Amino acid sequence: MSTTNIAVSADEEKRGDSAHRDNVAPSSQEDSMKKLLFGNMRSYGIYLALVLVIVIFQVLTGGRLLFPNNVVALVQQNAYVLITAIGMLMIIIGTHIDLSVGSVVAFIGGLGAFAMRNWGMDWTLAILFMMIVGLVIGAWQGFWVAYVRVPAFVTTLGGMLIFRGLATVVAGESIPLQSQPFRSIAKDYLPNVFGFWGGLDGLTVVMGALAIIGVMWSQWNRYRKAAEANLQTEPKMWLFLKCLLAALAIGYVTYLFASSGNATQGGVPIVLVIVGVLVGIYWFVLNRTVLGRDIYAVGGNRKAAILSGINTNMVDFKVFLNMGLLTAIAAIITLSRLASATAATGQEYELDAIAACFIGGASVSGGVGTIPGAMVGALIMGVLNQGLSIMGADAAIVKTIKGAVVIAAVAYALLSKRKKG
């Protein structure tokens, strides 16, 4: 009798648990879905901020900000921010900082111009020469930080003074650049192999269409893999909305680039291709390679990284070596755009790169940051520079606004972290 009662009680308990799950599961699923959506909204807040900044300056400039040629100029004139922000992000993730970027740009640009003018060096060899110099400088600063353990702030502060002084010695007042192929790097476009379609650059239209297809495939592939692994997935409506917004944004930008330039030349600037290739390479490095995982591990918890067998000294050395290479690429593009080298080139470049990383979500304590976030932060800085330039704002006003934006971005990140904690 007691055994039967126990069996009946067990069955009732199972039925009760089943009924309880039926009552609670929908609420639990709804809560998890809300958490997923709100988490995504926080992640996409930086994109909303970019849209808001664009809209504000579009209004303030009387619609001139998004003129096709102004959009192309935005990319060409702010390519240095996009490129140096990639290297700066990796350094910040690793809990360091680099204050010497602007001075190194001036020094490497001066050396390149000097080599082409005084040594008769071919422009292709000059590019290779400048990149080698950048690697040497990166190795020099990485050595002091990684192996002598001089704090990066002090090392790069000294580097800022050293290389600005050397830039003054090398470039003097100015070294004009005569090489037309070298100058075309920053001002020319990809050749229009498909002709013009209704006044639009055909190659740009094709590239834009491929970009839309790539984004949609990437989003759907990630959704499919998560579903196959029985992981929590976002609602299909949310996935569709993201793809639609991305397609509209890419389509509009494609139209702006395709209608830029003139009747014979326009479309995709060469510097945009360079930036795009670098973004793709470094996204892969940070997300799909051992080095990328090591950088995040060192930035997240250096002591734990050491205990797990990571050579933290080598990681520190590599991020500064990489910063030297990317700074050299930024120097090449800057020299090409300005068509002359001066000792004053690159003023505050490091501050723009640091600001782009923090605006894009990098943590001041290291271990956090993404390439897309840094690129969006760099675009926000670029829109600020371009919009205020179109408005004819005083340089002091530009610096004030950019400083306020950086403080606001870091404060928002810290407050969000505390709230999440």
Question: What is the CATH domain class of the largest domain?
Answer: Mainly Alpha
Largest sheet: 2 strands, antiparallel
Q: What global shape is seen?
A: globular
Mean pLDDT level: 87
In what order do the strands lie side by side in the largest sheet? 1-4
Provide the CATH architecture of the largest domain. Orthogonal Bundle
Number of domains: 2
Radius of gyration: 26 Å
Distance between the termini: 54 Å
The portion of residues forming beta strands comes to: under 5%
The tally of helices reads 17
Task: Write structural notes for this entry.
The chain is an all-alpha fold and 421 residues long. It has helices at 2-43, 45-60, 68-77, 79-93, 101-118, 123-146, 152-171, 180-187, 202-228, 236-258, 270-288, 290-300, 302-307, 312-338, 349-359, 371-391, 395-420, and strands at 175-176, 196-197, 200-201, 340-341. A two-stranded antiparallel sheet has the order 1-4. Strands 2-3 form a two-stranded antiparallel sheet. Helix 5 (101-118) crosses helix 14 and helix 11 crosses helix 12 (290-300). Mean pLDDT is 87; it is low at 1-29. GO terms for molecular function: transmembrane transporter activity. Residues 1-27 are annotated as: Disordered. It holds the Pfam family BPD_transp_2.
